[in-house]
Amino acid sequence: MKGESAMKKVGVLTGGGDCPGLNPVIRAVVRYAIKENYEVVGIKNGWKGLIEINAVKLDLASVSGILPKGGTIIGTSRTNPYKLDGGVDKVKKNFKSLGLEALIAIGGEDTLGVAAKLYKEGLNVVGAPKTIDNDLSCTDVTFGFDTAINVATEAIDRLHTTAESHNRIMVVEVMGRHAGWIAIESGIAGGADVILIPEIPIDINEVCELLKKRHERGKSFSIVVVAEGAQLKEGDMVKQEEKLDAFGHVRLGGIGHTLGEMIEAKTGYETRVTVLGHIQRGGTPTAFDRVLGTRFGVKAMQLVVAKDYGKMTALQGIAIKAVPMEQAVCKLKTVDMELYDIAKVFFG
Ligand code: F6P
Q: Ligand 1 mean position to 37 CA, how many Å?
């Protein structure tokens, strides 16, 4: 057993919106790292913690009992060092002063985009893909997505019974940013009658025709699932505010209410709107996300041990692979049209 002085140090941070499964990744990193005689430093609140040197030692006790917990024990932020004066220099300097051999960045396209750039600039970084949106390339799925679709599916199931009792149309707005993965998969699983995604502009007349036909054949209620990033054919994207965050994203949300009003006006059917919001991101991860997070955490640490930097862990088929981080963030993964065609079979 090597002494403390022989120990190598690895940092771990979580960036961007939190998501179920982050704690299982952190736990796996720490457990595997300790076996490999590494000390783990938790960088608090994403890149912000590396700019400000806000870090804590993570040991066995720190990760005990966190597997079923949602959120992240080390906090997160949407800080972008490339948008802050001297931010990148501070990150590089503090990486050294903390004595890190490598850093594991757990995040989505923004956090891993920063990680990929830092790797190009000489830092030893590896990544693990998180996001409920499931919009990262090179991995079949990101952790957090399974939990989100299960939460959304349960909500759709519950809305069915109240919709049916009142002869109503229920519009359910789900998250997902500019990809319709949450909408399409929870919509299929929940038996939605119409699913609207950012990949296909909304034709409101077509939607109302589908709903009318359904009601004409005796159905007294309908469920419409809409992704927050879906856009009407005519009109601008509905946003909560115009302000952009440090990565250039607008705050989406509100299309559900716009759509609900239009549907009620055009069909005459009483319509109600439910916006699921952050409920999709909170709470305990599903077993799938716990296992995927655990596999990603171990793999990320294996990449560190092998000094195979610049890579992101990925699920391809049933295997965990390592892919170049740069490739994973260069293109948004949107809903594939084969899946959309399957969903369409059940519209109306
Ligand atoms: O990327 C995850 C996500 O939940 C998106 O689906 C959503 O648009 C966004 O984050 C919400 O961000 P915030 O937590 O800043 O409101």
A: 36
* Ligand 1: nearest atom to the Cα of 278: 4
Same domain, 58 and 185: no
Give residue 34's identity as a one-letter amino acid code.
Answer: I
Give the residues of the chain that fall short of pLDDT 50.
Answer: 1-4
pLDDT per residue as tens digits for the range 266-313: 999 999 999 999 999 999 999 999 999 999 999 999 999 999 999 999
Catalytic, out of 133, 146, 193, 289: 133
CA 248, 253, 259, 262 torsion-angle sign: negative
Per residue in 97-109, pLDDT (tens digit) is: 999 999 999 999 9
* Cβ–ligand 1 contact at 178 (below 6 Å): no
Contact status, residue 172 vs residue 156, Cβ threshold 8 Å:
yes
- Residue-level pLDDT at 311: 98
SS3 207: helix
Give me the CATH number covering residue 251. Answer: 3.40.50.460
CB distance 176 to 277 below 8 Å: no
pTM (predicted TM-score): 0.96
Q: Could you confirm whether 146 is annotated as catalytic? A: no
- Tell me whether residue 336 is in a domain: no
**SS3 state at 139:** coil
Ligand 1 center–CA 219 separation, angstroms: 34
The number of domains in the chain is 2
